């Protein structure tokens, strides 16, 4: 601030103050740091005010440049960071006071006097196979047998207890954790035998028990100060929160994620006994399994032979039934074809007879009309024309009736054929339904079902073009005035065969 001031001369009050301070400094050496700083500022101001104008401008420029440089350097240094894989406890670097709140990934502007105590956020892996506190753990089983065991585990610090962890352990929390874990594992191993640590079935039980024991050691708890935790790690006197009015010590503050037993090192004699016992048990199980497997193999062979015999017998029976059914279907087919052909011929003959009778009646009527016409023909031509006109009308009516008779005959034949086909379709549907019901329940067809199925397939595949009527108009009159009706056979076996 003083660098930016520009005055003509020093104020008298400033000169008086500086003279007084000079006199006091010459008489005593017991000034405080603040007083000395104030004195130096006043002296600098006095010197600045006595400087020439150009020198004051340069001094002001230097002060501004120095201020900008300090701003560029100090502002970024005033930011503190906590990474995504970290927790942080904020503290003052001057007073060393730590705030209770724990931060996750963050960026804070705290100034030059702020900082973070950093703790790991991911799972911390510990493998007891190294040195010092991470060396293999020496254990004793329930009968006093000594052996060593490697152990691997993972724990995670709990964010809500980071302040208590720092207050209790500072940054050396892992050493305390590992010491307590080793003691807890030694105590838990005394509940099991040495063999339990190497057998598959019992090994999982040991891991489960040790997991619970170690988790109880690592979890956050409070113990009364006057009743500190004993070496046996009995947590019955621990609390989740410190009781009111009591002084407590904080323990733990982490959560166990997993625990796995590693390599177990036994002494040679005990290892040989264990291996021999295991070998005998395995050999006994192998013999029992081989005996059971042989018995199963024999039973399987007998069952396979019985099934083969049953399948052969069933195949022969089904083949015989199919042959019989095919024979019956062939017989029924012949009968149905014969009946159909006979019925069609009867209908055709009846139609031809009706046509002949109608034509005979028509011819007689024409002759009857012509007789009076011949009598009056010579009398008047008008009467002849009327008779001729009537004759033409009768011929038209005759032709129309012939067309009607032929259409009725054709419709009757088509109706009979359609009825036969409908009966065949119904027979086929009934046969298919019955056949599939028999197939689902007995896996076999009856002769009647196979006969009906074969006949319906034959009828459904028949195009219906092999049945024909050939009714021709007569080419001449016979002597008795009747027309002759020529027609072909109803069924032409040369064209196709049902």
Our count of domains comes out at: 4
C-alpha Rg, in Å? 62 Å
Broad structural category: alpha+beta
What is the end-to-end distance? 125 Å
Tally of DSSP helical segments: 9
Strand content: 15-25%
Q: Let me know the number of strands.
A: 14
Backbone shape: elongated
Unreliable spans are 1-14, 27-31, 227-235, 467-471, 477-498
Record the SSE blueprint.
Elements: H1 12-27, H2 33-49, H3 53-77, E1 79-82, E2 86-92, E3 98-103, E4 106-109, E5 114-120, E6 124-128, E7 137-140, E8 146-157, H4 162-169, H5 173-189, H6 200-218, E9 221-224, E10 238-239, E11 248-251, E12 254-265, H7 268-376, H8 381-442, H9 447-460, E13 471-472, E14 486-487
Model description:
There is one protein chain. This protein is of the alpha+beta class and 498 residues long. It folds into 4 domains: 2-77, no CATH class; 79-117, no CATH class; 123-266, Tetrahydropterin Synthase, Chain A (2-Layer Sandwich), CATH 3.30.479.30; 313-487, no CATH class. It has 9 helices and 14 strands. The strands form 5 sheets. Strands 6, 7, 8 and 12 form a 4-stranded antiparallel beta sheet that branches. It has a 3-stranded antiparallel beta sheet with strand order 3-2-5, with helices on one face. It is elongated. It starts with 11 loop residues before the first helix and ends in an 11-residue tail after the last strand.
């Amino acid at each position: 601030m003083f660098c930016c001031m520009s005055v003509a001369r020093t104020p008298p009050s400033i000169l008086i103050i500086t003279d007084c301070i000079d006199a006091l400094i010459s008489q005593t050496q017991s000034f405080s740091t603040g007083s000395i700083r104030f004195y130096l500022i006043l002296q600098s101001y006095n010197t600045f005010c006595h400087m020439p104008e150009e020198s004051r401008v340069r001094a002001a420029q230097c002060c501004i440049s120095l201020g900008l440089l300090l701003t560029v350097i100090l502002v970024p240094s005033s930011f503190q960071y906590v990474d995504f894989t970290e927790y942080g406890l904020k503290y003052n670097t001057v007073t060393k006071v730590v705030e209770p709140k724990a931060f996750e990934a963050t960026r804070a502007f705290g100034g030059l006097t702020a900082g973070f105590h950093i703790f790991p956020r991911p799972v911390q892996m510990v493998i007891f196979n190294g040195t010092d506190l991470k060396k293999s753990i020496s254990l004793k089983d329930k009968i006093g047998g000594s052996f060593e065991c490697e152990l691997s585990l993972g724990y995670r610090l709990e964010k809500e207890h980071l302040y208590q962890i720092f207050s209790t352990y500072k940054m050396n929390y892992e050493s305390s954790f590992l010491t307590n874990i080793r003691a807890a594992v030694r105590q838990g191993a005394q509940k099991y035998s040495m063999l339990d640590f190497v057998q598959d079935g019992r090994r999982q039980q040991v891991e489960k028990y040790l997991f619970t024991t170690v988790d109880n050691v690592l979890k956050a708890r409070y113990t009364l100060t006057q009743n500190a935790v004993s070496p046996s790690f009995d947590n019955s006197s621990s609390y989740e929160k410190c009781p009111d009015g009591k002084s407590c010590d904080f323990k733990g503050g982490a959560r166990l994620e997993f625990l796995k037993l590693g390599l177990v090192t036994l002494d040679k004699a005990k290892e040989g006994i264990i291996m021999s016992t295991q070998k005998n048990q395995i050999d006994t199980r192998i013999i029992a399994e081989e005996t059971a497997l042989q018995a199963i193999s024999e039973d399987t062979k007998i069952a396979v032979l019985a099934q083969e015999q049953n399948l052969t017998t069933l195949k022969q029976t089904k083949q015989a039934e199919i042959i019989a059914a095919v024979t019956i279907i062939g017989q029924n087919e012949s009968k149905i074809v014969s009946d159909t052909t006979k019925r069609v011929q009867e209908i055709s003959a009846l139609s031809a007879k009706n046509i002949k009778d109608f034509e005979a009646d028509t011819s007689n009527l024409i002759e009857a009309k012509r007789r009076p016409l011949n009598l009056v023909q010579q009398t008047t031509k008008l009467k002849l024309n009327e008779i001729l006109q009537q004759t033409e009308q009768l011929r038209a009516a005759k032709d129309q009736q012939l067309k009607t008779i032929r259409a009725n005959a054709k419709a009757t034949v088509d109706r009979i054929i359609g009825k036969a086909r409908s009966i065949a379709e119904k027979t086929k549907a009934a046969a298919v339904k019955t056949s599939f019901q028999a197939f689902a329940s007995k896996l076999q067809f009856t002769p009647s079902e196979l006969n009906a199925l074969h006949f319906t397939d034959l009828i459904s595949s028949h195009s219906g073009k092999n049945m024909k009527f050939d009714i021709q108009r007569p080419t001449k009159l016979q002597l008795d005035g009747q027309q002759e009706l020529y027609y072909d056979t109803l069924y032409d076996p040369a064209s196709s065969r049902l």
